[in-house]
Design a protein that fits this description.
The complex is a heterodimer of chains A (about 290) and B (about 170). Chain A has about 290 residues and is α+β, with helices and mostly antiparallel strands. In chain A, about 35% of the residues lie in helices and about 25% in strands. Classes of the chains: A alpha+beta (about 290), B alpha+beta (about 170).
Chain lengths: ~290, ~170
């Protein structure tokens, strides 16, 4: 239960961090809060020659309202995100999802960017980023680009970021108007990886029709997934006509890599997933109608 | 591949005293506290962030010391279970409550519980039963069970002893 040896680097600016990554090549890994990476190192599921700790880079931390978006620095801890009144008001789904991440001791170290860059299919923040159409601000030596959430998650623990890039921040659109948000998870124990879950946002348009909606799925694929077909099928319909169970069923259609393990078969997870989507939908819809 | 990578000098303030030592980057804060500082009150159960036994306060926040490398804490302040009692050895309110409420049996997990509960009650003065159970969910006890521990948190918080717990 000890990591293999590595060299440790602790840059204090983003520019230094990306210069280090460019120089060190494939054998280097970014260390953020370490709440997923350090267990993987301890179990020797991962071995790296170099760790570049981004925890001392102040410019990676912060929460800022920018016009109709909210920017959250990648290095901002989950505890800070969860306690932020600004996040609670502007991006309620992000705030509500935070309480489901591990335990408070984990959230004191774990970061928003670490969670998203780790791209665990059972992660809460990736599901929220997908549901809300967030965009990832990615930096390398001499370049900066923005990757929409839908193009960011590529496979199991894999994103479309390159090895010499770091995630600097995430921009969440602020949904205004009559909106509702909810997250539901089913887990063996609070804080465990969910067997299945869903993060839902809904915004009402004219005549209480669905103006837009986002359904992020948790633990239902090999990578963070979004129920895009279900969203398309219900957008534009009057909210009163939408049966939450139907949304749940639609959201499970076409899922091709639902995990199967001792905690539940793929069939079971799909049933739980449909129920989680239905519950989250019901709560989000009620909140939107009340708004 | 670093072959027993070069040691790096760090200085960490633990329970008010500065400990300076060269460390291998892969050494966890937990191992640093136990092996370099001689503070063996911090217990290691799982060593991969599941059991919570190794919880300490890092700059005031409860963290799992097996999931932090000692090099990351250079310049930081750490409080361990050895720093919880008063200077004359008087137990803290949380420690007393664990004793009074039979919140421990073998005691292996207790340092983690005491550190976590100390931080939790600092942020949340009068928690409900549900909030306590959620706060305790990150720490595992395998012998006494949790009823006594929940009662201890209530007592330490100043709530009527065990009233809400069943």
């Amino acid at each position: 239960m000890k990591s293999a040896p590595f060299e440790y680097h602790a840059p204090t600016t983003t520019a230094d961090a990306v210069a280090l990554l460019a120089g060190l090549g494939e054998g280097a890994k970014v260390l953020a809060g370490g709440q997923s990476l350090v267990p993987m190192l301890a179990l020797r599921l991962a071995v790296f020659d170099h760790l570049v700790d981004v925890g001392r880079i102040a410019e990676l931390r912060g929460i800022e309202r920018r016009a109709d978006t909210l920017w959250v620095g990648a290095g901002t801890t989950q505890s800070v995100v969860g306690a932020s009144a600004e996040v609670g008001a502007a991006v309620p789904l992000l705030a509500r999802a935070t309480a489901f991440i591990g335990h408070f001791q984990i959230r004191n170290r774990g970061t928003l960017g670490g969670s998203i860059a780790h791209a665990d299919p059972a992660g809460e923040y990736p599901a929220v980023a997908l549901a809300l159409d967030a965009s990832m601000e990615v930096v390398s030596a001499g370049a900066r680009r923005s990757i929409p959430a839908r193009d960011f998650f590529e496979g199991f623990w894999t994103t479309t970021m390159q090895a010499d890039e770091i995630l600097a921040g995430v921009t969440f659109p602020v949904w205004s108007g009559r909106c509702g948000f909810a997250i539901e998870e089913f887990a063996r124990r609070h804080g465990d990886f969910a067997i299945a879950g869903a993060a839902v946002g809904v915004e009402l348009g004219a005549d209480d029709r669905i103006g837009r909606c986002g359904i992020g799925l948790i633990g239902l694929g090999s990578t963070p997934e979004r129920a895009a077909a279900a969203e398309a099928a219900i957008t534009g319909r009057p909210i009163a006509e939408i049966d939450p169970d139907e949304v749940g069923r639609l959201a499970m259609n076409g899922l091709e890599s639902v995990p199967s393990d001792l905690n539940g078969s793929a069939t079971y997870r799909t049933r739980v997933g449909a129920a989680m989507v239905a519950r989250a939908w019901e709560r989000a819809a009620a909140e939107a109608l009340d708004a | 591949m670093p072959d027993g990578a070069a040691q790096m000098p760090i200085a960490v303030t633990v329970n008010g005293r500065v400990y300076a030592a060269p460390v291998e980057p892969r050494q966890t804060l937990a191992d640093f506290l136990r092996d370099e500082c001689g503070l063996t009150g911090t217990h290691l159960g799982c060593e991969h962030g599941v059991c919570g036994a190794c919880t300490v306060l890092l700059d005031g926040a409860a963290v799992r010391s097996c999931l932090v490398f000692a090099v990351q804490t250079d310049g930081a302040e750490v409080t361990t279970i050895e720093g919880i009692a008063g200077p004359d050895g008087e137990l803290s309110a949380v420690q007393s409550a664990f004793r009074d409420c039979h919140g421990l049996q073998c005691g292996f997990c207790t340092p983690g519980f005491v550190m976590s509960v100390t931080a939790f009650l600092h942020d949340r003065a009068d928690p409900t039963d549900d909030e306590i159970r959620v706060a305790l969910s990150g720490t595992l006890c395998r012998c006494t069970g949790y009823q006594g521990i929940v009662a201890a948190v209530h007592q330490a918080a100043g709530a009527p002893h065990g009233e809400e717990s069943r």
